[in-house]
Amino acid sequence: MTKKKSDTPICALDYAFRRIGGKHKARILWYIHQHNNVLRYGELKKMVQNITSKMLTQTLRELEEDNLLNRKVYPVVPPKVEYSLTETGKELIPFIEHIGAWGRAQMEKEKIKIEN
User: Fold this and answer.
1) Helix (H) or strand (E) holding 82
2) How far apart are CA 52 and CA 23, in angstroms?
3) Distance CA 110, CA 113 (A)
4) Backbone phi, then psi, for 71, in 5-degree steps?
5) pTM of the model
6) Which of 3, 25, 81, 111 is spaced 20 to 30 A from 54 at the CA atom?
7) Is 69 helix (H, G, I), strand (E, B) or coil?
């Protein structure tokens, strides 16, 4: 399958933000990291505020396709699915942490209350 020209990243930043950009991806990676590298779908759904089930499922699939998350399905009823960071996903954590620190500093400057 040949990628369309518009699907080809124009630079390294474009490539990176296509994989981790968006409203929820970095937060999902961060939450999994904070919880010993493993979270179940229901736990993620509670943590990631303002996300529909459909969007969470789509985002998790994209992160898995981009080799940032592992998805482990257990053959039990009810279904049990766990998500964990891949080695590539773990490499992103220091950068996500740095962006979070920058965001907190900007919020403090603008006197925006941090909710957590």
Assistant:
1) strand 80-85
2) 12
3) 9
4) -120, 120
5) 0.86
6) 3
7) strand
